[in-house]
Amino acid sequence: MKRIYLLSLFMPLALFTAAQATLSKPVALPATNITNTGFNANWKTVDGSEAYCVYAYDLKQAAAKGATTIVDEDFAGVTQGSVISPVVSEDAYVDLSDYGYATTYGWGAYGYPSFITGMVGGVIYSPYLDLRGDKGRYQIVVTSYCTDGDSLYITTHGSKGEMLHKVATHVANGGTGLSTDTLTLDDGSKDLFFTVVNNTAKSGTPDYIDRVQVLQNLESGTTYYNMVAADEAVMAKDESTGAEVTTKRFGAPTRYTSSKVLYYDLHATKNDYTKPSGHMPYTAIYSPYSDMVKVDLINKSSEVLASPTTDSLEVGQYAATLAGTASSKVYDGSYFSVAPTTFYLKHTGSQIIYTAADLAKAAGKEITTIKFIFNNQSLYTAYPRKVNVKMKEIGESTFTYDSDKKDYCFFNDDDAQAVLSNYAYSEDFSGYYGTDGELVLHLSKPYAYSGTKNLLVSITFDGDEACESAFDLGFYYVPKTTGKAMTFTNDNVTFADYQQTDDWPLAGLNTGTRLEQPITQFVFRSPATPTGIVTVDQQPSGTAHTPAYNLAGQRVNDSYKGIVIKNHKKVVVK
After folding, report:
1. Nearest residue to 170 via CA among 137, 190, 148, 143
2. What pTM value is reported for the model?
3. Which class is 66-218 in CATH?
4. pLDDT (tens digit, 9 = 90+) per residue, 180-223?
5. CATH 3.40.50.2300 correct for 2-61+224-304
């Protein structure tokens, strides 16, 4: 990924530092030394950090409902080179924006890129893009100078991790020329980036990228952050003095924006050399992002913006079970009658129904984390699994029974939102011998729960190893909730593969039906800025007298100025 590549260049001293599994969220501070063109971003020291990645933005707003251009780069700054005589870089990586080849911030090219007027050949790197709007759905539109039928490889790094997409070019009337091709995706995140390369062009044929656009369908007034400057390698300590570094000067972010109100945030990083990752001798560790800081270059003022409030709810006696004060029970009986998973088989799939009454507290909020409680009565170590989670709202409160085939049926979840994809779960259970622990799944894509229907949660666990007993490692369940879960278990077939067979959606052999809900905790938050912010004059009619609350949850009157929450949405009151 882009971040790991940068860290490998700037952080060789990490070999000699102690590793740790996590880093705390940085505490951002108001900007100082504010001028008409720049400012100092500030923060408090994060224990264990080796470097900080600091980002500056302006705030964009969709002018009308529909397709909004998030970024549009045509590399007009390249003014030399031709197909017959291209200009070839002597450097493996070229910062296209820094050289003025790209007119917007954050573009780069890798692989000794070549240039002809208005076009770039090589692996093109996009900026980081805020694509949280429209539930992460967006389009990448690439215009390339190529041969008809060439394959563009577009690799996205968003809410679903690294994903490779192959797009065939279409030159009018065949042959060589310009091809404009569109890729529709749904893995948008706060900091998505992607690469584009013509991967099949033959020697002597053109393989240049002429223009790259990113579009997203947004509601009128929806806002999103647009990056205008960054430094991803602010070393945590000054090399000469050893002093902690807690400031970064952005001298001219206005090079890429005319806005006089800017924003910044940051996260801390370090490399864990006890855990190699692929060809890298370490695993890069990132803290959560800090709160966003607003900087007014005209008024020379700055303030830290409050982050969305976080809360949780329990389905069953979650806290009391962990504390050992509840009379909760662990699933028993057959090995397939357990949700959300059993480690006795290599492949499991669970579907769990949580009612609107269960989740009333989360109505209108974004679910960010799901937790379950397990009990370990044996010296099990780790049984790594790839975990996938999907969610969708349904009207049903129980699973359907097919009276003709005399079997219960799973729900079709093809249309469900993927909220966690291929998460590597490798908990060492030996530390929980004879006691309880939590299985925690932080969603890579928060789920916006309306609260008007029940919630179906589909969870799959897939691995190569299994424990020796189905009964020593089990999950607690909520009594008297029969019919709220079904499970699939198999040593050879995944739940995803089972869904492609003729037996689907029937429960079939080795499938648990009529199961209780596992004891669960949901963590949720108020809708995240900026994609949930609209101006007050864009609210639907009839909402003027709806109660409003500030970000601390306190009710405010009509004279309050700033960001308020109305009808589960953030509204800017001017």
Report:
1. 148
2. 0.59
3. mainly beta
4. 999 999 999 999 999 999 988 788 889 999 999 999 999 888 88
5. no
